[in-house]
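Homework help thread (please don't just give me the answer)

Our assignment gives two proteins as sequence + structure token strings and asks us to describe the second one. The first is just a warm-up. Here they are:
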Amino acid sequence: MFAMLFAALLAACSPGNGAGSPYAGLPAEATETLALIQDRGPFPYRKDGSVFHNRERLLPHKPSGYYREYTVPTPGARDRGARRIVSGGDPPVVYYYTDDHYRSFRQLEPRP
């Protein structure tokens, strides 16, 4: 029983769950990507900062060029992986996170 509780505590405190992030439940890599976006780079991937066209129409309708996409590194992935942050505005005023390559998004809200 103690071992299970200890394992749960370790998992809750691990960097991958967003415990140190100002955004609840965000992986550490996403927090790092957000910091790069706010600092305007430099970005590790060539496509970071490219226009996100919202073809899936899951985000609010905005003029072309409003949204930009950034790669959130996935540990162990051989390519860019499925995780992204999409920012809206210049400078960004809203952020969305997807971990399933644009099939779903959640708006990032800072912790209270």
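The one we have to describe:
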Amino acid sequence: MMYEARPLTELIEERAAQSPNKTALRYKRFGIWKPMNWKELHDRVLNFSRGLLALGVKPGDNLCIIGDNSPEWLIAEFGAMRIGGVFVGVYQDMQSREITYLVSASDASVIVVEDQEQVDKLVSVWDQLKDRVVRIVVWDSRGMSHYFERYPYLIHMDDVIAMGREDPTAAEALDRIEITPDMTCMMLPTSGTTGLPKLAQISHYNMYVASTLLQQIHPVYEWDETYSLLPMPWMGEQFTVCRFVFSGNGYNFPESQDSVKTDFHEIQPTLATLSPRMYEDICSDIRARMEDAGFLKKWIWSKSLELGVERADLFLAGKPGLRGIKRFLYWLAMFTTLRGVRQRVGLGRVRMAVTGGAAMGREVFTFYIALGIDLMQLYGMTENCACATCHRKGDVRPETTGPPMPGIEVKVDQEGMIWVKSPTNIKGYYNNPKETADTFQDGWLKTGDSGYFDEYGHLVVLDRQKDLMFLNDGTRFAPQDLANRLKFSPYIREAVTFGDKRDFITAMISIDMENVGNWANKRNITYTTFTDLSQNDRIIDLIREEIQKINDRLPEEMRIHRMVLLPKELHPDDEELTRTRKVRRRIINERYKEVIEALYDPGRKTHELDIQITYMDGNVSRLKATVKLEDI
């Protein structure tokens, strides 16, 4: 079925014409929130696109963007679209070699970057880029007074906008460019859990229809407020951008990564679209604070949460809510305790909370519903614009991702593979016909995920099909599901579980440095480094107790029997995680092969770990540490 669709750039033009003075977005500078109305946004996009043409950029060229979430990213994004071009999202924490790969793979002729940090990365590899890249555009030039003279290929975004405003030839050239819905408007890197990321080619039609379909289920209104928190190159945030121009709601940007929590609290958005990891972090933060609270405060919180969890369990089971005195006590708890907790973490006004992109444990779902927040999950991926299945209001089952969305077909084949047929399925992968042909077959997207439909018509996603594991006794388990249960603990930052073709399950844990550090400080436990803290006997006992709590709720064959605490965080710079913070299991298996084998040797109590680590600036060194192998 074909849907009517429009280019996304037309939506900005329409908003500017109909509501020129309405605030479109807010951004924070030096602690002060500043508004930008639709006319201002439209004019800056228009003049930036004209400026690109004045620079010599050709209609249809590709443009890479690297930086934190900001209005300038949107201006560059829609400016590229306006000249019939394609913007390519690049994660701001990528290293020079990763950026070089994406710039080369995308055939980008222009790179738009945020600041000196990103420019320095590009300067270090300029010899590899100069034959294809025309200019590097910078939007925050603080500390770069001498850069523009030294590197003539640099230009400030304001200068590009000024060129567009003053060049009548560029204006005439822009007017001759026709944008149609079927044109590619963006290329986003896939997660790259199995290797180098592919570039997904996404059209205006894909994004417009995705917004249309979700609007039928969960409408967004002009008075709604969203907060830009997910990375801009991630489909989840681009979907939020598309709904912003589609629905005309407010869109808010944090001042910096350091002020994300503070700014989120100040905005108090009505819509929250966060990754499972972010919801887990908020949950862990709340629970860690309450663990350290005084006796009375902790007791009140505990009793309030108990009532909330009881109500959540009834809701999730489709049963009537609390009755009588318990109902009264819950509402008392909501007004005296739970609402205040929501307010403190920025969720005080949220009317709809959505997550997707990875599995989320039942415990996390229950926690938010206990706080009175309607948390719903959708299932999708970059290749179908995050549109496949979605929970409906009042029909939420935490183990599922909901039934298929309107106009979308989802099937599970005999091997358990999930396939999706949708008008939001993308064109394919840029310059990669082999992967395109393998992934898209007869209009169906092969997701690579394993799952099934439950008796209510909800899709249950187990894990990546290649990652499902079987114990020697034939017991099947999803390692990601176990890891999500472990990460419900405020003291566990990341977890990887093992057990394929083994007799029992083991876990590799990366502690949450902040929460575990606070716990240690309050108990006068001295430590000097992450490694020192992770191997402390009392910390090991703490994590063992947390895992035992999970084990108590699992069948015997699914319980974790041994563990090791890593002396470092799992990190994208070491290729252990993707830039969207998903575990790269193949890399983990190779990098920690000896540790994993040691976990399955009952006589081993320690292991001498010796691995290479990479710093943010690209420098490398070796980490040598004795890690303890513990029974649970």
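TA reply:
I won't write it for you, but here's a hint about the kind of observation we're looking for: The radius of gyration is 25 Å.
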